[in-house]
Structures
1.
Amino acid sequence: MARKLNLRIWRGDSTSGALQDVQVDVNEGEVVLDVIHRVQATQMGDLAVRWNCKAGKCGSCSMEINGKPRLACMTQVAAYPEGETITVTPLRTFPVIKDLVTDVSFNYKKAMEIPAYAPPADLAPGEARMQQVDVERSQEFRKCIECFLCQNVCHVIRDHEENKKSFAGPRFFIRIAELDMHPLDILKNRKKTAQEEHGLGMCNITKCCTEVCPEHIRITDNAIIPMKERVVDVKYDPARWLGSKIRRREGI
Amino acid sequence: MSGVFSPTRAKIKERTLRTDKWWLQPLLTFGVLFSFIIYATFRAFENDNYFTEPLISPFYSPCLSEACVPGSTLFGWTPVSAQIFNFALSPALIILIFPLGFRMTCYYYRKAYYRAFWLSPPACAVAEPHETYSGETKAPLILQNAHRWFFYAGLVFNVFLTYDAIISFKSEDGQWGHMSVGSLVLLISSSLLWFYSLSCHTCRHTVGGRLKHFSKHPIRYKLWTWVSILNHKHQQFAWYSLAAVAFADIYVRQVASGAWTNFYFF
């Protein structure tokens, strides 16, 4: 049974824009992306929206729905009280291109700044062996679909544009953590560069990245805080520093 | 103009478009933590009503000052002077710095007070009011990296408070084998402090989190998995233990002042 939904959609580009009200039919079980597509098909033919899989796995349809960063394809219209107006805007951390589409290239630049996986030089292709317990911890981080909702909600760059040059963001802290916890990765300075080059110290643990992650990755508890503790090991703990010099126990 | 109002971003004049009660959680956090700070400050300076056989307030334990009331010291050991520069020194002031430091640098409380007190940010996707931000990269916030030292100190304090809970199973004249409401209060308080400490992120890192190869350290891996289970509830333990410690102090204060009677079950 279709009902009418009041929708406010932000329309514009980098020079100007405004929220526009529309009324649209919505059917039982539909998600916000369905409704946006209906608006696009019936009322706003030139409405720009990025989407792909409609299954919560490609990370394309990230936007802000009633002010919260979400995947439009995973947000049930029925989750909002009947009669409530749903407001849809583009991500507010990245430059807007048109309507609901933003330029997320910041994230790709940051991805390129993270040193790649570095296996031992004498490890031939096909010879890598790992125990399941060693794999499990970083497997959680591999669930990331790169929707960049965590990057969008992080106040370090959302509220401070000037920090973008020195802050990689939660998505890339889980990448650094994944590599630093990898038993076969031999790059020694990931902890120091996480702090000194990628801005780990700017994170103040407010856990918004974890709250918005559609894959439910425990970004703060399992990646950022462990990395902060590892940074303390090498930078702020004289006892650990001394122990590492005496016993040479790197990479245990 | 910075942040969400930066020139290249979508032109939206509201600081947030959230329609839920996003302000409620930081407001509650502020209210509870601020109340605790006021109460703890008052009690730290009160320097009275912290001991009555066999109960001692967790705010004053271990009592290490020459000013401690008779019977409240740890085996009679009082290494700290009763006053500094002619100012009377409350025994609580000597020790509260450690549990306070542990909570102030705790990864959970950091989230709580950065949001509730410093509004950085007040809630997710709600623009913060500050013009600049450097996080925990500069003094004084870089001192958050000292969390592990407060964690170690906290473990020592937990031992003392557990000892206090054990000796509370004495009668008022020192006979073992009795149990009062005060015994239960101190037991619950010290137990929750253990849960809070052992669920700590630094504890998780120390027991095994810093390893690259879990498979080469099966015992530490097992410890890490146990602490990880507790770590899921660290936020709850943080609040429960705070409430329990505050109530334990209130209870001892009321009993010591004569306002309440410490009821003995047996």
2.
Amino acid sequence: MTAAPALTRRAAAAPEARPKRHSVLSRGDGRGAWLFLAPFGLFYLAFLLGPTVWMFVTSFFNTSTVRTGLGSFAGLANYAEMLGRADFWSSMWHTLQFTLYTTPPLVVLAFFLAILTNRVRRGQWFFRLAFFLPYILPSATISLIWVFIFTPGSGLWASAQSIFGITPGAGVLASPNTAMIGIAIATIWWTLGFNFVLYLAGLQEIPRELYEAAAVDGATTWEQIRYITLPLLSRTTTLVLLLQIVASLKIFDQVYLMTSGGPGISTSVALTLVTGTGFTDNRLGAASAASVLLLIVIIAIAIIRQLVDRAAVRKAA
Amino acid sequence: MALTTAPERRTKSPLSAAAPAARPTGARMGTSGRTFSIVSAIVLTVFAIVWLIPSVFALKTSLSDNGVAALGATDILKTWNPTLHSYAALFQAGDIWNWYLASGVTSVVTAALTVLFASMAAFALSRLKFRGQNVVFLLIILGIMIPSQVLIVPIFQELGAVNLLNTYWSVIFPQVPAVIAVFIFKQFFDGIPKELEEAARIDGAGLWKVYWSVIMPLSRPVIAAVIILTFVGVWNNLLLPLFVLSNPNLMTIPVGLATVQGSFGQRYADIQAGALLAALPLVILYLAFQRQIVEGITGSGLKG
């Protein structure tokens, strides 16, 4: 009996072209494999794939929270409505605006601070702590902190403005022109640490010998950064950029907590529109159509990322 | 860049390896290098202080009297009369205990289920051969591309249909299928030498025994990383619990705070104390498991 698995293993492996990879446990494990996959698969179907399919279906119906069932067939009406609504396009624009405000500082500043931190010989832990700690705070915590900092007139932000001779206005979050900037500042403070640790990890992959060789050849510190660090971190930068864009498209928490999309709809973003249409207007079909449109954009970016990744691998090979 | 490198990565962790790595370069540096280092240190310190200000200010506010906090930032900073009054008030009001319970239960249960189910699935994908393997892989890649936030409307409908709204399960279940966890486990398992389990198999061990007694005990670092990352993710989730929980007694701490925030009115010290209490368990977790958290994030970030 003890020899049996070994024998079957050899028999099963022989006809295969690539016998190594699965050589240990093969034939007869098929049923076992599905049993191991079953628990995760069940949750995957129930709470990931299932809802995605259901979302596509309801996007073609007048589904509502106030009735049970799908409701009447709407065809493409939900999509036509969304694409024709001014607030759909303004929420898309605000999402883009948020992306444009946050991405450059989050990439450039994280890169810059990681390079500097990597050069520090003592007390690195302190800088890691300072820059990374905000990242693990809940969105509710950072929002409450920043709303208080942005208190009109007497808040910390207004006080700092007075010190620099700027007259504090009605408050950063109270004006439609600056509310998104306020949300962007809070977000940069909150999530910089994520990119920072990605860059630090990337920096530590660069072989030290490269710098030593460059130093022997008389390269200045700046030249070392320009001709060694920058090019070798380009892969990390692509990654950071794409993660940043996808994260920006999904922004919801800070907006909901700091401005609820206001003043007016000046900070309303894609997910604010989805949840507003679905849970405030009770129009689940229309909300699904908006979600599908958002999902299409996000998947398009994920595919672009795959293509970029593959191109980079091919170039490296 | 797979997790095949995970066991080795421990030795050159971003947290431990940097300091010695910087030294030899520094030793070769001339005067220009030294000036550069000093300037770097100054600039870096300025940024670090700026980055610490919001948290420190929140802490200072939470230790102030509500009356002082209402006067504004300058009064908060000028007055030195620390009091734990706001914290005591929050704990006496009682809601926060329910919220801690909800956050704690949902985070722990989700983390446990995710680790168990994702590692089992990863074991099948890494070690077993079965028909339909390619389809499963495809579904997993697809799952990585679908962000759960986009699914809030259909998930809400589904939970309503099975009468799970306003239960802890409504927060737990949708967060269990974290596809990235399967990836992290699979890549780690791929790096474990096969000889160990072959020996176990020859001794007659079944699949479950191989998984539970051979693979899992070797995977402690990656188990820790997935537990911590799932815990933090569930604790911090706002969107899902916000819409599936409407009973204040069941709310997780971020949702509870966001909901009652309005009723605090001018009690700014209490609000900041609440904000910090919501984060406190995570800060403790971070200080205790810095390495696992940072490595988990760089690991999953590089692949996700």
3.
Amino acid sequence: MPLPIQLAWMLPLYGFSGMVLSLPWAAGWFKRNGPRPAAYLNLLVTLLAVGHSSVILKQVWTLGPQHFEFPWFQAADLNLRIGFDLSLTNLAALELVTTMSLVCQVFALGYMDKEWSLARFYALVGFFEGAMSGVVLSSNLFMSYFLLEMLTLSTYLLVGFWYAQPLVVTAARDAFLTKRVGDVLLLMGVVALSAWAGSMEFNDLYAWAGNAREQHLITPLAGTLLGLGLIAGPMGKCAQFPMHLWLDEAMEGPNPASILRNSVVVTCGAIVLMKLMPIVALSPLATDVLLAVGTISAVGGALVALAQVDIKRAFSYSTTSSLGLVFIAIALQLPGIALLLLFAHGLARALQFMGVGSIIATSNCQDLTELGGLGTRMPATTMAFLLGSAGLLGLVPLGSFWCMGLMVENLRSDEPLFALVFLLTNLLATANVTRVFRSVFLGPVLPKTKRAPEANWLMALPMVSLSVLVVLLPWIMQRIDTVPGIAAFPLPVGLAVAGSGLVGLLIGSVVHLDEFWSRSTKSSLRVLQDLLAYDFYTPEIYQRTVVLLVASLARLTRWFDVTVIKGLADGVGRLSLTTAEGLKLSISGQLQSYVLTVIVAIVLLLGSLQLLPGAG
Amino acid sequence: MLLTSLLLIPFAGTLALLLWPGGPSPSRLRLITIAILVLQLGMSVAVALAFDTAQAGMQLQERHAWLPGIGLDYALGVDGLSLPLVLINGALTLVSAVITRDIEKRPRIYFAMLLLISGAVNGAFLSENLLLFFLFYELELIPLWLLVSVWGGVNRAYAATKFLIFTAASGMLILGAFLGLALLTGSVDFSLTPVLSDRLAMGGQLWLLGALLIGFGIKIPLVPLHNWLPDTHTQASTPVSVLLAGVLLKLGTYGMLRFGLQLFPEAWAKLAPVLAIWAAISVLYGSLAAIAQTDMKRMVAYSSVGHMGYVLLAAASDTPVSLLGAVFQMVSHGLISALLFLLVGIVYRKTGTRDLAVLRGLLNLERGLPFTGSLMIVAVMASAGLPGMAGFISEFLVFRGSIAEYPVATLLSMVGSGLTAVYFLLLVNRAFFGRLAITPPSADAVADARLDVQLAPVAPRETVPAVALAAAVVVLGLVPSTLGRLSEVATTALASITAIPGGLG
């Protein structure tokens, strides 16, 4: 076996080592040269990771998939291992993760130029990258879970990067808690599976799931609960309804981290779901829930995105929507197309968010109503935004167009409803992109966009490189080859996809945009607009249900603790103290008397033992 | 001799401190104490090195008849259950001594009591004789009571008395159970063998086990016997809280495993379903109560109540994996709660308050406590069971070992683990995120945006132990096989006692 493959265990360690290397600057021990050295070190190790993974990809291409594992912890019947699956798809995903991390880190150098805590940012990104590299390569559920939760932690810290701002505080809290709910449910599934199936290797789990189905090893109820537990984790990670609100709030974090979150982090979540799907499929109900979640997220996310006035939020809801489509593909057992969707989405979404980041960095403004006329002033950004968005839509033959064609082709006879969901989502997403493009790049120049130079080269370079990649995406997808040819659908299907995009384009072009009245003046329309703008009032619904429930239970417990338990304890205490009064024990001079009492008591008791039969 | 040295060093140290000629200054006393404790920790490590991990049962045994008439032998031994706890005791007492500062009142007695506790706890963990265990178990009470009542906070008299009453009751119940065992079996053999209970009728066994469970349940503490803990913690000084949470609570769980599960396997199997539910209640109650706290220290104290519930769950399930999880949970809770109390103590000393309604933005880079805050994030994440740190593998083992036996109780306990994330995240978000403030918010926004808050940097004597604890938490989380190897044989043997009643006899 060639050396690079033997050293494949190092792949996740590159990111983690970047974190460790940044610590001296992040902790402020090295202040002399500013925080930049930490950034350079991180870039260097990420570059190594990209190189290493490319070499391995090439070798696996010729040698075939490789698998290896190490023992991590063993006790009784429990055997936890570190396992790597070097398959082409896993390595392609790894390539995506490391490349995205690299371009984002370059982009961050430009975007966070004057940030004091640059080193801390790079340390967190290194942590992020390491965890994601591990997730995509993992060959067993335990390791996947382990790293997914590390992702939760690093998301929390990245969202909370500017922790002094009030909105960031709530955003970080919601990001962590929402994901944590998903993680705990996933952990329940993981623990149950570990006890039932023994091994945690995905291949063994699939074999177990096959047996379980044939020999009815578990009850239908257990199977359903297991399936629901397993899908909860990826739902949280991929920001699916009803656990979607964190992604929108997470836009309070630095933009380079948003790029990673919206492209590769959600991809990691979906890849884990893909690996779990054969087990989830044990339960028809869990599969149906997955489909419902995907559908609601796809359509709901696209609708909510339409009503946002914050440029980052408008697209973070689109991410929820796109991942909803991926969920549908996974639930319908079309992993090949789901994977292609993820690739196309990951690259193009990253490019789109880079364009957004460039706009924000230049104008210091995220409000769509205050932006305008940037098209002529920022040509590279405009191109990146257009290409990125085009790669996400089924309108021109870039990445997503082919995936949507394939999906519609696969679904149109058996599940025509879901084919329609794809077309509808595409329509809404196109309309959203069009309206955002109009208000940001076209129209009159506004005060905030008056002095808007093109982004600096550290931001432009990654944007241009990624643009090239997005243009080449159809060719790359053909090479990845998870399905027999990406153009395996007839012309009418292609026309239908492009047609839905075109309708969206038209709607987006004619819809009335008003800088002044961003809320509609017609009351009926306003109700709808508010409903969408406030995300179907999900935060309020949470406040009034889950949060209220936990808070009331907590208050009830405290009340019980203070009145009943403490009351009883104090009562008993007073009683014994009154008794103690009789023994002339007071708090001040208690020690000697207490010791004496204890000793006397012990001596008496032990002495009584002498009287027992058989003593001595 | 190796085990005796673990008692001899701290007890001799106590005497030496009390009799040290002249009037040594507090800092001098502290250094002497630290030297003695380093020696003790070194000896504990030596014990660990001499320990054969492949062998079940007690090792390095020492036995001398003391008062044979009443069955009291000086019998020491160590196995995979007690060895990790002895190590934790050595490490955490050292931490308490290192972080001690500003002792003006009777420093001599303070440090002597610290050593006395450490020696007594070692004795309790190493005893192979029930009465010897009880002597050490009681011996540790008095110095701790003194530490709270003399060097504690404003309400120390109340808290100390409460502590004393509760734990004295605990001691009485345990002694009662031990004596009852002797009375019912008609023998004064107090050595640690499970055969004893075989001669008893089930009714008698259940009574004795019940008394033990309540006795140790007070110490652990389990709901509803926990009321002394939050009060004692809030009034105790930081080093004492570190000891109390990190080491002394483990006496309860250790006793429960050693003298409950191991001595009364049949009765234990009968009571186990009840215990599992009790564990789940304890976990949920502790977590929910912690959510409602505004005092950081109380919050951490209630989290202890919740987290010790996992140990009871693991003990009730009584499988090899769950019992190993119990040992892991004891060790990781020891390290994590010690770290939490240490950090809360730093915050309290720097800001003068622990009130979550008041503290804001302590992570502030220039004027706040960024290093303490970063370690706090590590500590709360470890406590919430994030992978890569000790809490995760402990909880995973407990849950994995219990879910087949008691699925509902296990799932409820996992909900408790989720709630841990809630309250600790609230703690970090409230106190450490946001704009720096250490006074209550007022109506005047301009006055609130004070820039004159400048917290002094934290001294190395506090940061170094905190970093060491955090490092231990991470190492244990990444390389759990270190502890696993130490304990696995013992916990597997313990689990097999109940599988074959009286199996070890």
4.
Amino acid sequence: MIDFVSVAILLLSANSLLLPLLQIPKQRNPRLPGYVLAGVLAAVVVLIGLSTEYPGTIAWFGTLLSEDILGAVFAMVTVGITLAVTVASFDWQKGPNAPVYYSLLSFTALGMLLLSYSSDLLMLFVSWELMSLPTYVLAGFDKKLRSNEAAVKYAVIGAMSSAIILYAISLAYGLTGSTQISAVVQGFYQLLATQSSSSVLASLAILLFIAGFGFKMSIVPFHMWIPDAYEGAPTTVSALLAAATKKAGFVAAIRVVLAITTVYVLTKSPLFTTADVLAALALLTMTVGNISALTQKSMTRLLAYSSIAQAGYILIGFVAYANSPGSTAATIGMTGAVLHVINHAILTGVAFLAAALVLMQLRRADLGAYNGLGRRMPITALTLSIALLALAGVPPLSGFWSKLLLFLSVANGPFLWLAVAGILNSALSLGYYGWVVKRMYFDDPESPEKVPEPFWFVLVFAVMVGLIIGIGLFPQQAINFASGAVPNIAG
Amino acid sequence: MNSLADFVMVSAMLFGIGVYGLITKRNALRLLFAVELMINAANLNFVAFEQYLPPAPGAQAALGQTFVLFSIALAAAEAAVILAIIVVAYRLHQDVDVSELKTMEG
């Protein structure tokens, strides 16, 4: 039996290392490195889809990686988004630096793939860094003031979050004597059952984990770098940051924070419950994200705040799980959270790529450039409208179903207020999403001439819109797919 | 004074100094130093725990030291990337003060 995931890891590693060597003198085809990466990523997605033996182990990695459905879902989503970004970059990056650009994308994809399957804190940390370091460089890839500013802010904050995670891991190791996640969970359980004084350190470790992962997951109050980094970075890279690396933050949080949370509820820690902390963060994240997005003048900045708000919705599922692991509400909540991660990756990814195309063709990112876009770039405008409406949760598009599951999961229980807040926030978000749609279809353009829409962008848009409408019309299949990942959470 | 508590105390102080530096300093290089302090605080924790605590049943031998080796290598890679970004920032601004970086607002 061939182990498909190890083949995928090997392929992606080789590709990342060899791609920069592809600088042939007098290059015939400036897009060649992009084509190579797109082919490899497509192969990796297929290989992940082919492996059906769960739970399995991945050769050469021992207990560092474990092959389960949770990992497979997140690996497919993150690598798939990287593939979309790669295809959309064909027209964006084709200069002499293109091999380096695609190699960095490849390293990021490898980091996210390994992170999704990590079952050991050592592997988790190494793949976290493998994912983060290339994105610091990618954020500063344009030799412009803004791109560099984005890179400085992102890199310093990112390094800080890595340091916080490392400290939290060191505490967890000190308390339990192991870095294997399941052993850490077991160790925490024994520690808290005996109610020793170490439970303060254990709580500190959990808070540090939430903070460290929170920087990547763009949770308020750890979000301050997000708008600047997403606006300043090349917009295709913003799509990668918002749609892919952020999701990798979520899988890390699911694997570590939620696993440890299981123990907390069982032992009734007197200090705080993780559900309370997560609920407060969810409310803050939704509200701050949506209210800040209302007043934005730049499309990329608006999408950045919208992406922050969406992270708040996903946290609702975490709250339902942390409140009572193993209950039906927890299952519904985590199914909703995983489905919303998938939806949000597709929706934010396609919205940022549409913004990238507008920026590339019109050289403008302010909302004024979107006036009358429905007549100038009909395909882009239609795609962007569908993505924005789905982000707002308009039925029958994909975003509606995952939000429904998330709000249902907390409707019975002490966190009902969170569901109410979520619904109010969705209504609020329609304010700015609808505003952009109105600009594109009802306002007069500044100049009437048509703008060309390159083939590769249109291809990505078509596939993504197909997925958005497909998930919206056939939610049962998508929900089944997402719920397959839920039993893997307890660790 | 060679107990585990001493090491953990020193490590917590290092981490605190790092956080303080990140909050108060505005020079990009100082921010990098602060992050390095935080990473080294965690490294100190790992070695101290390895030295003083019994390993969990089934855990690998010298796990703490192994982790530190990985983390030192990663910290070096991180420093290299961030320094490169700061060099570009210096070329663009003739300065590495992060409070000068405010072309984007809102």
